[in-house]
Amino acid sequence: MKGSKKVIDGLNKLLANELAAIDQYFIHSRMYDDWGMDKLYERLNHEMEEETQHSDWLIKRILFLEGVPCMTKRRDLLVGSDVRSAMANDLTLELEVVACVREAIALCEEEKDYQTREMLEKLLFDTEEDHVYWLEQQLGLMDKIGMQNYIQSQMGK
């Protein structure tokens, strides 16, 4: 099914963000593992898998619309140097993804591509209700209980 070039371009822009999120969560999860923060490692590893699923949805939809998924473009990674900066950088990336998804949803409305819009709404829910909310919650916990207590709560079993 030949899709709108505008929609395909919007999906590729979003794909670039999702691919960057995979890489950013990958490095941050391994940093947490190296620092002995098993709970954060497990959570970020899970987030990386969800971002991979989102990328899969986008790639399949672009192919369905007879477009070519662009796997070579990615936004720059924001790698943190400690727990707080890593989470703050992940939140920055996720908020950019939210804005990009909303933009793509509006584009789908404009182009009357309701099936793509439906897929993007699921992606938006995952991003806002899960990823962004959890990151904001963790940063808030750091402020409430202090960094040392937070780090201790994320350590191994």
TrEMBL record:
The keyword Repeat does not apply. The keyword Signal does not apply. Its EC number is 1.16.3.1. Pfam families: Ferritin. Residues 1-146 form the Ferritin-like diiron domain. GO terms for molecular function: ferroxidase activity. Keywords: Heme, Ion transport, Iron, Iron storage, Iron transport, Metal-binding, Oxidoreductase, Transport. InterPro entries: Bacterioferritin, Ferritin-like, Ferritin-like_diiron, Ferritin-like_SF, Ferritin_DPS_dom. It catalyses: 4 Fe(2+) + O2 + 4 H(+) = 4 Fe(3+) + 2 H2O; Fe(2+)(in) = Fe(2+)(out). Belongs to the bacterioferritin family. Iron-storage protein, whose ferroxidase center binds Fe(2+), oxidizes it using dioxygen to Fe(3+), and participates in the subsequent Fe(3+) oxide mineral core formation within the central cavity of the BFR protein shell. NCBIfam families: bfr. This is Bacterioferritin.
